[in-house]
Amino acid sequence: MGMLKVVVLISGRGSNLKAIIDKCSKKDVPAKIIGVISNNSNASGLKSNGKFKKIIINNELHKKEFEIKLQNHLKVLKPDLICLAGFMKILSPFIIKRWKNKIINVHPSLLPAFKGLNTHERALNAGVKKSGCTIHFVDESLDGGSIIAQVATAINKKMTSNELSKKILKMEHKIYPEIVKLFAKKEISVKKNKVFIKDEKKLNFFIKNI
Ligand code: GAR
Q1: Strands (E), 76-197
Q2: Spatial distance between the Cα atoms of 6 and 169, rounded to a whole number of angstroms
Q3: Is 177's C-beta closer than 6 angstroms to any atom of ligand 1?
Q4: Which of 33, 60, 94, 95 has the fewest CB atoms within 10 Å, i.e. the most exposed one?
Q5: Catalytic residue among 62, 73, 107, 120
Q6: 109 lines ligand 1 (CB under 6 A)
Q7: Closest ligand 1 atom, residue 119 Cα
Q8: Ligand 1 and 115: CB distance under 6 A
Q9: Are 71 and 98 a contacting pair, CB within 8 Å?
Q10: How deeply is 30 buried, as exposed, middle or buried, from its count of CB atoms within 10 A (0-12, 13-18, 19+)?
């Protein structure tokens, strides 16, 4: 099986990037990161070690100019999968259409609830009994697109948003790399906006044990 070429887009800390790097270093994961692109030169995730290109695109650029640069870098890298990992910019149809069904994202809520920022505060204020994280294909809307996998956790009334964020981040670090692995093994497909997982029972078992 050929290696899945992955590009990761980040804006900050890059802890999900690190989790994906670790997973890709495993023998049974036929995926390699070929590039990390950031809109923030101070993103600490850019300090991650690995044999991949690190590209910074100036965030001050006008959206169209930024995306032309991004598109040009992607055309050179030719990724099979683009992982948004804390990439805090909405991509326009110009990018989304060119890489249809090849861009995925992690969001720290059970989508479609709590799209956007300050997710955990809003979940706690809304008094929901569960939250979690979602891995989804990316469409033109904010945190929108077909859902690939979700991991849920019960919310305890005394939890602070910081505690909830930490708990959910740990889940993200497990599920996101696992989904990259399933892409590498060609076990994920999408038809008419519905996502199919080759061995759904196995993935559900994995999720249960997170
Ligand atoms: C993660 O919690 C991710 O779910 C969130 O940003 C954080 C990035 O952390 N993404 C979004 O909110 C996207 N809408 P990281 O840089 O340590 O991976």
Answers
A1: 81-84, 103-107, 130-137, 147-154, 188-191, 194-197
A2: 21
A3: no
A4: 60
A5: 107
A6: no
A7: 12
A8: no
A9: yes
A10: middle
Q: Which DSSP letter does residue 182 get?
A: H
Place of tokens 């992607």: 74
Which 3 state secondary structure label does DSSP give 166? helix
Spell out the per-residue pLDDT of the chain, length 210, in tens. 699 999 999 999 999 999 999 999 999 999 999 999 999 999 999 999 999 999 999 999 999 999 999 999 999 999 999 999 999 999 999 999 999 999 999 999 999 999 999 999 999 999 999 999 999 999 988 899 999 999 999 999 899 999 999 999 999 999 999 999 999 999 999 999 999 999 999 999 999 999
Tokens of 147: 């859902």
Buried residues in 130-142 as b, exposed as e (16+ CB within 10 A):
ebbbbbbbbbeee
Question: Known catalytic residue: 107?
Answer: yes
What per-residue confidence (pLDDT) applies to 1?
67
The candidate with the shortest Cα–Cα distance to 117, out of 161, 151, 57, is: 161
Q: Which domain holds residue 18?
A: 4-208
In total, how many domains does the chain have? 1
- For residue 136, give the CATH number of its domain: 3.40.50.170
Residue 181: CB atoms within 10 A of its CB come to 21
